[in-house]
C-alpha cells in the first residue's frame, strides 16, 4: 500500500515538474507580431500610380531559413498575382518571385518594424517599411520605388 502511495506521489511530482517546464518554455517564447494572415484594407490604402488592387492577402510565417512572405493579389482588372520570398534578417540578398525586383534583403529594426530593400540586377530599386501598430492589429506597409523610369509608391494598410 505504501509503495503504491509513493509511486502515485512520485508520478504526480514528475507530472507537475514537466508541466512547469512546459509552461515556462511557452511563456518565455514571445510571438512574432508579423506572423499570421493580413488582409488589405482598400479603403485606407493609397497607391501611386493607381488604382490599387481590389483584394490582397499577405501571410508571414517563420521557417528555419528565415521569414517566409506570401502575397496573393487580385488586381482591378481581375488578374491574379502572387509574390513570394523567404529571407533572413541579415541584410543579404534573397530571391523574390512574382515581382519586377530580383532580390530582397531584410533588416529588423525592432519587434514591430521590418525594413526591406528590393534590388534589380544588384542595384537598389525599392524600399519597403513594414510597421505593426501598438495593439498588434494593423500592419502599415510603405513602399517607394522606381522601375524602368517609372516611380511608384504605396501606403498599404492591413488588418488581421
Low-pLDDT regions:
7-29
Structure summary, number of beta strands = 11
Distance between termini? Answer: 57 Å
- Biggest sheet features: 10 strands, antiparallel, barrel
Global structural class: alpha+beta
Radius of gyration: 22 Å
Strand order of the largest sheet: 1-3-4-5-6-7-8-9-10-11
What is the helix fraction of residues, given as a range? 10-25%
Strand composition percent: over 45%
Coarse morphology = globular
Mean pLDDT reading: 86
Question: Can you give me a brief rundown of this structure?
Answer:
The chain has one helix at 2-28; strands at 36-40, 46-48, 55-63, 66-74, 80-87, 94-97, 103-110, 113-120, 123-132, 138-147, 150-159. It is α+β, with helices and mostly antiparallel strands and 160 residues long. Strand 8 (113-120) and strand 9 (123-132) form a beta hairpin.
Question: Care to describe what's here?
Answer:
The chain is built from one helix and eleven strands. The protein has 160 residues and is α+β, with helices and mostly antiparallel strands. Strands 1-3-4-5-6-7-8-9-10-11 form a ten-stranded antiparallel barrel. About 14% of the residues have low confidence.
